[in-house]
Amino acid sequence: MLHIAIHLQLSEEAWPEMLGRRLWWALCWLGVCLSLLCAGASPAAESCRGPPCGGGEAPPPPCRGARCGGRTGRPARSFLHTATPLRLPQGKAAHAVPHAPPAGSAPHPPAKGGAQEAFCGGDCAANGTRRDCQGLECRLLPRLRPRPRGPGCAAAAEGCPEPALLRAAERAAQFAGDDIAYAASERGGGALGVQLTCDVKPGENEVPSEDALILQLHLAKGHEKFTEMLKSQQQIIVDLQQKLAEQQHVLVSQQREILEQQRKMYEQMDLIKVQYGMLFDTVKQMSFQSLQEDIQNYFESHLQGLQNQVRNQLQKSYSVHKVEVDAKVINVGDSLLDCGLCESDEFCDFQKKPSQCEKCTLCPAGFFQMAECSANSDRICQDRDECTESPSICGERIKCLNTPGGFRCLGIAEKDAALGMCGEEYFFNKEMQECQACLQCEDGMVAVPCSTVSDTVCSVTSENKLAESWAADIVLPYVKSGISQVYSGLNLKIKGKLPCEILSVEDNNLVFRQHGLLWTDLNFAVKHNCRNFLQLSLKLNGSEEGYELSGVRIEQPEGKYFQSTSLSSAAEVEPSQTLSVYLRSPNQFCNQSKDLSIYDLNTPLSLFWLSHDTGAVALSAQMSTAMHYQTNYRPTFKIISVSDPYMLSLSHDGRAIKFTETGVVKFVFHQALYSMGHTCVREGFSLISYINRNGTNSELMNIFKSGVNYRDTSISASGATKVGAGDLISFEILSPAQCNVRYFGDSSGISMFSLIWIPSAVSSAILATVSVTGLPTGAVRNKLLDFTQVSSHEKQIQLVSSGQLAQKYFIFTEKGIANLAFNLKLIHSCNVLKMTLNQLTMDHMQPTAIAQQIGGQMPEGSIWTSVSLRASFEVHNGTLISVSLDCVRGRINQITHEHGTSISILWISS
Asked: What end-to-end distance do the CA atoms of the chain give, in Å?
């Protein structure tokens, strides 16, 4: 067994580097060599700890001479072992030591003085004298140390015998000692001490050959050189990588220059394309002008001959002369004029067989009249040459090309032409890519005026119209004092957007001109601090004393924020009747307040009118008065007016409306109430509408309303659905427990029920709700809502199911009038929540807002809130509508997609 203990005292910086080089291999081989050397020792050998060997004679003098000369390669280096300094021999030569006996042979007999003397601390000479060890000798076994020389060697070194070759183990120890000491001193470390202890067992250690040990030492040195070569190769690789990075940078710069050159080349190609297009148009124009000149020359050359031929033919066929003063034309042969008497705007077309009266042709836009329409000839029109009349119409450097009814500026982009380059009374036709003259309507009946990108739309007579829609704005009337007199009733100002044949606006009121059925929707948002409540009403005035069609109460708020509500009604109107919008307060405190403002909504008032030819029936009913407080409530109706009692009637208990025939019904329910209790505020109220088919009730829609405590308010529901013969519609209001509610019912219009029944032949309706997937949350800005249809599919109204507009847009497939009612239940922290109804048509690819409603801050203490939007509008084949949300300064936390959220759409043929 071999125990090797190595004590190293090196600096922290020199230690890792020394281990990475020759030290590790030298120490390893040193241990192997010493272990092999120890294998040849006697098992009974013990270290000598006694007095010096021999009889105490003085040690011989040290060897001097050429063979004892010092080492010339390096200075002597010291090794430390505990407290005893250790020096290596300066010369590389050493005294010869006898070879150990081979394994299995008898050990050498012990030297004089016994085994103890053989392993003493000093060296014992043959004559019994003691010799002190020097350098690395003290670490070797005594039998391996150099033999002492005779006395004669001290005097004359030349006469000393030639020493034997140093054993491999000694050379390895000497080599390792030199290198270790040298490495330690060169790296600034401390002295190195080595302690070796050998446990020798005979027969177990083999002594390797001297050549093998020397080869191993050379391999260790070769490994060091190989490591240094690797480091130099690594440095070369780093330099190559740096050069490669520089070349890559140069390559990237060249690529950028190539891309820039390509971009400039593409720009030049685009410029060449534009120039080629201009050249091509110029060639076409020149060809067209040359063709026109050729045709004109041909007709001019043959016109005289053709006129003579026609004159001769007429003379042969007819004989015409005047009779009396009326200049009556008489055909001597065949009758020339047998059309009879034609109208003033007609002429007799004798080229047809038989002759007949034809309408005089109107000169189209972009043409001018050359000859007036007469009794036997049509009007002659000539195309206006805008390029000749206005040479600079396209600019100084732009070529102008005349076209039938318009002109074209060559080389002008579409976006530039659409900005109004065509000029007044012209519009840019995207299909023909040219400027066209605006259409001139007969009798000035303009429905949509001409714009820069669209032609004039002329209105048609409404003799056979079944339905028509109209919209207007609502504003507060101007008051000099700045304080509105709300207490006595304030008539809000109505500002119509487009003229309408069925009504007109006079003195802030709507005046009807024709008989029919009327449906009105009003979206309203106000900020006030009036006590109790504000009441918004629709009032119908006629020859008799006026009465309120319907009304809602806007509760007193806890803070200064906008409150919104929606109001609807149905009525049968007659000519000269008027419709007004009133806002009033039950006390005078509101007159003293200047904090009354109406939010400027987009088209808050809308309506549609139905002719009696549609077969529609209108009904109005009021709720019976309930004087006591209760929670759940099922109202009882009392019919005020109905246009056809056979079609609509009450159930036996007066709590439902019964239908006689199949059709589509549009309804609205308003209920005023007064509530007390904190649970009213926290949980709110629910208004549920039921439809009873064959004795089975099913929920039609569920509307939510935030509750109030010791306040007056109103809850309202509006929708459209298909009904069958014998179906019933009823309502129920649910309030939370420990919430006392008083429900009002009188003739003031605050608790009313109205509906219009329309035959299925001219109408249809669908129901939908907000889709559970894709609900907008967070900071929502103009986000379109996704919908899921819950009713059966209809031909005229469909929810888009594929493409980019899927689940977001409803599309109409036929022209008519549409009405929408949307209720949304949600939780939000927005300062203002905007709900917008958007319309998308084929003419305008950008959505247009046609109606809007807002919701203010959530009432304090309420978990949920709601916003409702109602509107009527005109649709065509391909018209698309959608609903978007916009949260101003806040976020939307949750939107319910089941109870409290619903959308219904009604379509009526026009």
From this structure: 115
Q: Compute the average pLDDT of residues 261-285.
A: 79
* Position 379, amino acid: R
**CA distances from residue 436 to 151, 379, 391, 433 in whole angstroms, order as listed:** 138, 22, 17, 9
**Nearest-angstrom CA–CA distance, 43 and 94:** 27
Model confidence pLDDT, tens digit, residues 480-537: 555 567 877 888 989 887 888 889 888 888 999 888 999 999 999 998 878 788 999 9
- For residues 623 and 745, the answer to whether their CB atoms sit within 8 Å is yes
Cβ-in-10-Å burial (0-12, 13-18, 19+) of 301 comes to: exposed
The CA–CA distances, whole Å, from 82 to 5, 7, 191 equal 12, 9, 11
Residue 491 contacts residue 537 (beta carbons within 8 Å): no
Can you read off the two tokens belonging to residue 342?
């034609």
In the block, tokens 């000169």 appear at 363
Cis peptide before 557 (omega within 30 of 0): no
Whole-angstrom distance, CA of residue 806 vs CA of residue 410: 40
Q: What one-character-per-residue DSSP string does 367-391 give?
A: EEEEE---SSS--EEEE--HHHH-T
CA distance 138 to 194: 12
Distance CA 684, CA 735 (A): 7
Spatial distance between the Cα atoms of 392 and 436, rounded to a whole number of angstroms = 17
599 vs 563: CA distance, rounded Å: 9
In this structure, is the dihedral angle defined by the CA atoms of residues 276, 277, 278 and 279, taken in order, positive or negative?
Answer: positive
Q: How many residues belong to the chain?
A: 910
616 close to 519: Cβ distance less than 8 angstroms: no
pLDDT in tens, 699-758: 999 999 999 999 999 999 999 999 999 999 999 999 998 898 998 887 778 899 999 999
Check: CB of residue 76 under 8 Å from CB of residue 90: yes
**Are residues 808 and 800 in contact, defined by beta-carbon separation less than 8 angstroms?**
yes
Q: CB-side exposure of 268: number of CA atoms within 13 Å?
A: 6
Query: How big is the CA angle at 422 (ends 419 and 428), to the nearest 5 degrees?
Result: 75
The candidate with the shortest Cα–Cα distance to 364, out of 428, 430, 448, 440, is: 440
- Identify the H or E element spanning 754: strand 752-759
CB 862 within 8 A of CB 872: no
Q: What is the pLDDT of residue 649?
A: 93
Q: Would you say the C-alpha torsion 115, 119, 124, 130 has a positive or negative sign?
A: negative
Tokens representing 553?
């109460």
CA dihedral 481→486→488→492, nearest 10 degrees, is 90
Instruction: Classify the C-alpha dihedral 280-285-288-294 as positive or negative.
Output: negative
Q: Is 606 helix (H, G, I), strand (E, B) or coil?
A: strand
Question: What are the residues whose beta carbons fall under 8 Å from the beta carbon of 493, sequence distance 6 or more?
Answer: 474, 475, 476, 477, 508
Handedness of CA 136, 138, 141, 142 (dihedral sign): positive
